[in-house]
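Weekly puzzle thread! Below is a chain. First person to post its structure in token form gets bragging rights.
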Amino acid sequence: MYKEILYTVDDPVAVITLNRPEVLNAFTLTMAAEMRHAVYRAERDPSVVGIVITGAGRAFCAGADMNMLRGITAGDAPTREPDQDLDLTPPHPVPADLDGEYTYLLAVTKPVIAAINGPIAGMAVPIALCCDLRFMADDAPLLTAFSQRGLIGEWGVAWLLPRLVGTARALDLLLSSRRVSGREAEAMGVVNRSLPKEEVLPHSIAYVRALAETVSPASMAVIKSQVYQDLVGPLGPAEKDARRRMVNSFSGEDFKEGVASFLDKRPPRFARLGDG
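Winning reply:
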């Protein structure tokens, strides 16, 4: 089905692999469409608790395909191959603020993890920032690259990055386009954790497996929605909304199961999300 990504599911994890290793997984419109289709496919699959996005070969993603950029400089509009017209309808309504080219990842009801196994640059940076968690190879380089190409902060990165690392650090990375390692990215707060390259994908998969064994998928979906909704709103309405959601959760099956499993000293058996 896909030309530029790989898609595998090993209950409870869906792994989406950017698969153009010969060009460091340089991003194309075809890859963008296929990734979005695969993400929604995983969201609909009740066997999937979390989604991991990674890269084939030695890189995560080197940014936009340079042939595509060269075409733009010549006045050509980038296009997707006609046989790659996939149904990109989301499984549920997406809030207007999150209905963007890659910010749709923030609206996915399941956790999305970027397993940054190697170099990451350019537009791949905001894509990774739209994931909920990021684990990165400790010696892999990260650079925003936009200012080096005569471009601006693309795809919402000027909104996303300061909220992770603060204004001064975000401007450092965006203005200078300097390379930072996974270790420095962790210290700055860009990624959750840096690890040896060979551990990045296994760690990401293990993280999802731990979620599947211990927490409610329905709770995760609501919490994720709360975090991104409340990020741009005042405290008062957020607290009132949390109280309303809390009362609703008291009547839910997952709350009953969570209490019962704790009292019975056994692993919980929560229902999965998805429509099959």
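Puzzle host: Confirmed. Bonus trivia for everyone else. The mean pLDDT is 90.
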